[in-house]
């Protein structure tokens, strides 16, 4: 690996010699930052955590993680080992390596919103000292770390990047709710502005996952690798969503088709569904922004985005159409949507497409109730302005004409046809786009629809 342009590789020793013992700071204690801080503390490092959300910091300090990514036991052990969550930025002053895990959302017109990154740089900058290292984990397009964050840190600190201060990039790849692919099992991609810094970061992160580290030749390569991982996933899901919509029109189950197709060794196994959340539905816009800046129209990337962004409307339209076939005479039908979070078994509501699905069903004349045992009701009210309903195990008589299984939480996947039957009138419709209950479809008394 060669050093980044303009960086003198012989400046390394003052920086990297200290990394193995430095106090670490993690900035942004969300889905990415908190598990990282806890893992670093568990590996024996001294870790300061900083977040602007004082209430969240308070809960973390009390041993509670409302993302559900860190168990109480692991968090308590980290706190006992010296992990110090703080909402006072001055707590960052003692850190030699600062790892930034703040959000990278998009603006209303689907452009990268680098606001949280820039604000983090403004906070961190004055607390840096000569010899500091700042590593970014947030997902960005190639160039953001060195061309945007570097100058912002330099301006806020008065230090010179490449002389007093070095940058690294180590994209996070965790998948919320995924118990298999965890920090300690995922290969970590790392990059530093000099070879020695990259090596030091490889040691730092390798201590968390048995040394499974891939060092890239530059920070830009690592930024680009992360950006394409999520854009590729978005495009693949868009393809499967598209074929699902085609086959639905000819009464063919895409799930049956996929069961057959995935038996081929090189078939890519993706499932149709709503694409929400903070990553897959957002990160491709970082790549498309870069593409347009450099003069290439990113047709494939944006086509995937358009289709996935539109999928909730498509599903609502098809469910409403099928409902009218099944129950043409019901006036003001009542629908229950099961699941509101952006994916299965996580409480994360960010960019969930279920509100879009619900709104479209309302336009089709349904009254819509939402039920989600995984989501936090006060979070739903605060962030989405929506209310959740409780669904009693036995309603006496079924209250709904339509049930839509929007998010296949484990709690819903385990429902029996009798459980579902207690919610929906016998003349009603059970809509299960993801096919979670499809092997039980024959047992439903109600009509059943899936992709
Ligand atoms: N969630 C994921 O599964 C995932 C996976 C891989 C990569 N990423 C990327 O990691 C980054 C963080 O994502 P996340 O899901 O952890 O976000 P998050 O919203 O869960 O957490 C971010 C935290 O940063 C805090 N924050 C915001 N601005 C801040 C600032 N200026 N200073 C200090 N703290 C600040 C917020 O209060 C919040 O607690 C994003 O770039 C995301 O794309 C996320």
How is the main sheet built?
Answer: 8 strands, mixed
Alpha-carbon Rg, integer: 24 Å
Unreliable spans: none
Tell me the total number of β-strands.
13
Strand order of the largest sheet: 3-2-1-4-5-6-7-8
Tell me the quaternary state: single chain
* Shape descriptor: elongated
InterPro entries: 6-PGluconate_DH-like_C_sf, NAD(P)-bd_dom_sf, UDP-Glc/GDP-Man, UDP-Glc/GDP-Man_DH_C, UDP-Glc/GDP-Man_DH_C_sf, UDP-Glc/GDP-Man_DH_dimer, UDP-Glc/GDP-Man_DH_N, UDP_ManNAc/GlcNAc_DH
Domain UDP-glucose/GDP-mannose dehydrogenase C-terminal: 336-439
Keywords: NAD, Oxidoreductase
Protein name: Nucleotide sugar dehydrogenase
Structure overview:
The protein is α/β, with parallel strands linked by helices and 451 residues long. It has two domains: 9-217, NAD(P)-binding Rossmann-like Domain (Rossmann fold), CATH 3.40.50.720; 245-449, Rossmann fold. It has helices spanning 12-16, 33-42, 54-61, 72-80, 115-124, 144-157, 195-209, 219-249, 254-261, 283-293, 299-326, 354-363, 377-384, 410-413, 417-421; strands spanning 24-27, 47-50, 84-86, 97-100, 132-136, 165-169, 188-192, 213-215, 334-338, 367-371, 400-405, 424-431, 447-449. The strands form two sheets. The protein has an eight-stranded mixed sheet, sandwiched between helices. A five-stranded parallel sheet has the order 10-9-11-12-13. α7 (195-209) links the parallel β7 and β8. α8 (219-249) packs parallel to α11 (299-326). The chain is elongated. The mean pLDDT is 93. The structure holds nicotinamide-adenine-dinucleotide. Nicotinamide-adenine-dinucleotide (NAD) binds next to α5. Residues 27-33, 50-53, 56, 101-104, 116, 119-120, 123, 137-139, 172-176, 278-279 line the site of nicotinamide-adenine-dinucleotide (NAD).
């Amino acid at each position: 690996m060669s050093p980044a342009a303009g960086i003198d590789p012989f400046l390394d020793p003052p920086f990297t010699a200290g990394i193995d013992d430095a106090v670490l700071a993690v900035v942004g204690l969300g889905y990415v930052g908190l598990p990282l801080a806890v893992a670093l503390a568990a590996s024996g490092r001294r870790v300061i955590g900083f977040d602007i959300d004082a209430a969240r910091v308070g809960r973390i300090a009390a041993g509670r993680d409302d993302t559900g990514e860190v168990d109480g036991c692991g968090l308590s052990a980290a706190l006992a080992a010296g992990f110090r969550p703080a909402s006072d930025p001055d707590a960052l002053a003692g850190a030699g390596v600062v790892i930034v895990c703040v959000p990278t959302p998009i603006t209303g017109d689907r452009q990268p919103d680098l606001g949280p990154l820039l604000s983090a740089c403004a906070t961190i900058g004055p607390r840096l000292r000569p010899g500091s290292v700042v590593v970014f984990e947030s997902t960005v397009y190639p160039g953001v770390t060195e061309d945007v964050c570097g100058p912002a840190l330099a301006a806020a600190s008065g230090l010179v990047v490449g002389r007093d201060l070095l940058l690294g990039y180590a994209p996070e790849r965790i998948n919320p709710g995924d118990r298999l692919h965890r920090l300690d099992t995922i290969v970590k991609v790392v990059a530093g502005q000099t070879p020695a810094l990259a090596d030091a970061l490889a040691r730092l992160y390798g201590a968390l996952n048995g040394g499974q580290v891939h060092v890239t030749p530059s920070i830009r390569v690592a930024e680009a690798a992360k950006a394409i991982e999520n854009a590729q996933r978005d495009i693949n899901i868009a393809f499967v969503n598209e074929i699902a919509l085609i086959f639905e029109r000819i009464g063919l189950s895409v799930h049956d088709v996929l069961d057959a197709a995935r038996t081929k060794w090189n078939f890519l196994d993706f499932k149709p569904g709503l694409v929400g959340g903070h990553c897959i539905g957002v990160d491709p816009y970082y790549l498309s922004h870069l593409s347009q800046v450099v003069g290439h129209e990113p047709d494939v990337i944006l086509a995937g985005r358009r289709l996935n962004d539109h999928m909730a409307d498509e599903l609502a339209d098809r469910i409403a159409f099928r409902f009218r076939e099944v129950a043409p005479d019901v006036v003001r039908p009542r629908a229950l949507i099961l699941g509101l979070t952006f994916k299965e078994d996580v409480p994360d509501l960010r960019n969930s497409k279920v509100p879009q699905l619900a709104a479209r069903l309302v336009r089709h004349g349904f009254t819509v109730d939402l039920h989600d045992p995984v989501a936090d009701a006060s979070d739903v009210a605060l962030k989405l302005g929506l209310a959740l309903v409780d669904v009693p195990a036995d309603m006496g008589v079924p209250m709904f004409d339509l049930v839509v299984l929007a998010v296949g939480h484990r709690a819903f996947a385990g429902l029996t046809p009798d459980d579902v039957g207690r919610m929906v009138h016998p003349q009603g419709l059970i809509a299960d786009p993801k096919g979670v209950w499809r092997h039980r479809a024959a047992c439903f008394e109600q009509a059943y629809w899936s992709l």
